[in-house]
Amino acid sequence: MAAKSFVLIETAVGKNREVLAALGKLKGMESVNTVTGPYDIIAVVVRETLSDIGDLVTSKIHTVDGVTRTVTCLVI
């Protein structure tokens, strides 16, 4: 069974569209949406394991120019 998480993402001012486009190209993203509230983007990530989710967040999402902070919420 695949692992799933919601990744709450804050972006730098003026970078929301660029971050949204870059995240949409990453493998494992089920959806990527701009939202209102304390976070700018919420991504639904589905990978084979929880470790794969961690790797995607740390090596791919965190390295996108304009991402300033993330919070990962694992679905249980």
Blueprint of the fold:
Elements: E1 3-11, H1 16-24, E2 29-34, E3 41-47, H2 50-61, E4 67-74
Antiparallel strand pairs: 1-3, 1-4, 2-3
Key features?
4-stranded antiparallel sheet; alpha+beta; 4 strands; 2 helices
Question: What would a concise description of this structure say?
Answer:
The protein is α+β, with helices and mostly antiparallel strands. The chain is built from two helices and four strands. 25% of the residues are buried.
Per CATH, what is the topology?
A: Alpha-Beta Plaits
Which spans of ≥5 residues are poorly predicted at pLDDT below 50?
none
CATH superfamily, please?
A: Lrp/AsnC effector binding domain/regulation of amino acid metabolism (RAM) domain
Largest sheet: 4 strands, antiparallel
Helix content: 25-40%
* The CATH class: Alpha Beta
Q: Strand-residue fraction?
A: 35-45%
Structural class by secondary-structure content: alpha+beta
The secondary-structure element order is EHEEHE
Specify the number of helices: 2
The dominant shape is globular
Secondary structure tally: strands:
4
Total number of domains: 1
Q: What number is the mean pLDDT?
A: 96
| Gap from first CA to last CA | 12 Å
* Biggest sheet, spatial arrangement of strands: 2-3-1-4
What is Rg?
A: 11 Å
Name the CATH architecture.
Answer: 2-Layer Sandwich
Architecture overview:
This protein is α+β, with helices and mostly antiparallel strands. The protein has a single domain (3-74), classed as Alpha-Beta Plaits (2-Layer Sandwich), CATH 3.30.70.920. The protein contains 2 helices and 4 strands, in the order βαββαβ. It has a 4-stranded antiparallel beta sheet with strand order 2-3-1-4. A hairpin with a 6-residue loop joins strand 2 (29-34) and strand 3.
